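Render this sequence as a predicted structure.
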Amino acid sequence: MLKRRIDFSPVPATIAGMNETETIDLPELILRLVHSPDYQPVKPKVIAKQLGLPKERARELRKAVKRLAREGKISYGENHLVKRPAAGAEAIKADRPLITGEFRRAAKGYGFVRPIGTPASAGREQDIFIPLRRTADASTGDIVKVRLKPPRRDETKQNGSIVEIVERETNQFVGMYLERNAQAFVQIDGNIVAEPVPVGDPGAKNAMEGDKVVIEMIRFPTHLHPGEGVIVEVLGARGAPGVDTLSIIREFNLPDRFPLHVMDTARAQAERFDESIGDRLDLTGETIITIDPKDARDFDDAISLERLENGDWRLGVHIADVAHFVPAGSPLDLDARDRGTSVYLPDRVLPMLPELICNGLASLQPDKVRYAKTAFIEFTAEGAPVAADFHNSAIRSKRRFSYEEVDEFLADPQRWKTKLASGVFALLGRMHELAMILRRRRLAGGSIELTLPEIKIDLDKKGRVSGAHVVPHTVSHQIIEEFMLAANEAVAQHLNDKGLNFLRRVHQPPDPRKLQALTEFVRELGIDCESLQSRFEIKRVVELVKGEPREQAVHYAVLRSMQKAVYGPQEEGHYALHSKHYCHFTSPIRRYPDLIVHRMLDALARGTRPPDDFDYLATLGQHCSEREQRADAAERELVKVKLLTFLSTRIGEPMEAVITGVEEFGLFAQGIELPAEGMIRIDAMSDDFYRYDRQTHSLTGYRHGHSYRLGDLVQVEIAHVDIGRRELDFRLVRRLDHPSGSKSLTAPRPRTKSVREKKKTALKRSAAKRTTKRRRNG
């Protein structure tokens, strides 16, 4: 953890000739001088001489002095002499609270601090604005302390100054190596740092101009100096195969190798595993299958299902017993906890556990004895759960199915009758029947389901984008989804009934203010609805627009109103699933929280109470949530980089896109066929002057009344691509009523009158009223 505190230690009265004026913020230099023991009150021009400032910086110094005086850090007044602050002023300054929060820097240098503890559902109104000259050397993601500035009458947003860096997000950054005038620089990727950072001795790593490199920041940039770094790794030439992926791995500090001692532990586990069943429940003779994507390498869930004599169902969900191979506190466990999750990048997987475990020992491969945690859940004929029990088991999967194969089976079961063993054939039919019963029951009970299309990019052998395709959410996906949801709920209910704190999957209800805004937005679309504070009204509206032009707009708006699901021991339920008790149990190969839940089941099976310290689980839950969000962000960023590289050769080409965000500075739009998100800047929308309406997520023109809102379909052209800054600019061509070859996604709306037309109408009405009044009085 690195900290930076402003040092007010004395400095000589004159420091002319020193290079501190180039490396220290000007306000800080002034404060050091004024607080030095031998300082005598002088005018700003004398201070400029004492600091050795050139004449062209005199105006900057006068502004800095006035600003410090307003903040109570110096006294400035009579005869324009600069003095130490009065005791009262210091007390006022000291009384201003320091607020700790996370800093985010904008592309233009200024930034915002979100106070620690701000709810995830809160809007931007709680963020503290930090002007460029008040950001110190903070970088995006740093935890900082901010001193609030007394608000002026016309200010609606809190302003502040960063006074301390509490914790650095990272000291390492990825960028492109440059050479200018025989000096070496690195332009940091993204918009974290606007200007290139000077680096020393690049020859030590044999960096070539245009290479992607990793630098360690020696001194972070401020608005007065560019900072300083040193190259610690050369990733390769920009554009070379695999360099983009490696850049993202380094940028997000993703672990891509396992330490030697972790691998040694995994090998020792492999040597001990002999497929003996021992005291486990022997299910190797049962009809059990797996259903996974075609390209899956690990199989962590398997299914069995039978119909009981009383008409009930007995569902078996068999999950890879990762806990058997990853003892608590072992090197394997500590490394997995730090990773928190596997990371699924477009062209590779960074697993949470070594391949020996996740693709070998623990993977439920067909025709091999594998250890499992089995949840048997009994349902009535109508799908109501009535009982559940849990076992350490041994299974042997009879067949591995892909989702596509199951969909083909469901489309024409008779074609598969001769291809499959009779038990497997019958099992697939039973699975489909029960899954649909559970699904209907869950949705009728209030579970909210949104169906935005998932688009996956296609890569060639060199990892370059070659196209994209929609990932269908078919019945085969729904079958596995229903059974996994049922198992997760059953385990959570079991642990809750035992009176334990455990790592739940928590999805808090939306903020009421966001639901009110959602209600108004939906009504703006012409949909008659009650308050969407009711989940059943949300479900009704979602169902109402299914297949309609307004479907995309409603789904995007509902998603924006929702909070993120996180891990934690707090009993707050899962809003979207409408589940009081829910946890993750079904994917311990790739999620650490599932492994913790498995260990609790192990302890209960031994007749002991598992460790369930609430505070520890809260800390672990926050860590796992952050790791999950990091993995998601890295995947999104790499997809963005690959798409930008692909689109950089297609400037000017048209594409259809859907509006995914509306801000006062422009529109965000995502391609329909290629999921690249870009910006349509409001200053480039030259056909009108637009006003922003936060409630309706829309921009509306003053003159012609053209309106663009969340979910609208538009045609755009690729205007500008900056791969280094991760920026894509679109040029708006027109609003579309429907995408090519498909039904309308946006409802045509009546033309809105411009402000000028409204004024003319009002004047006409006013004149007509005056005429009528004169006639009545006359």
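Summary. The chain has a mean pLDDT of 85. DSSP finds 19 helices and 34 strands in the chain.
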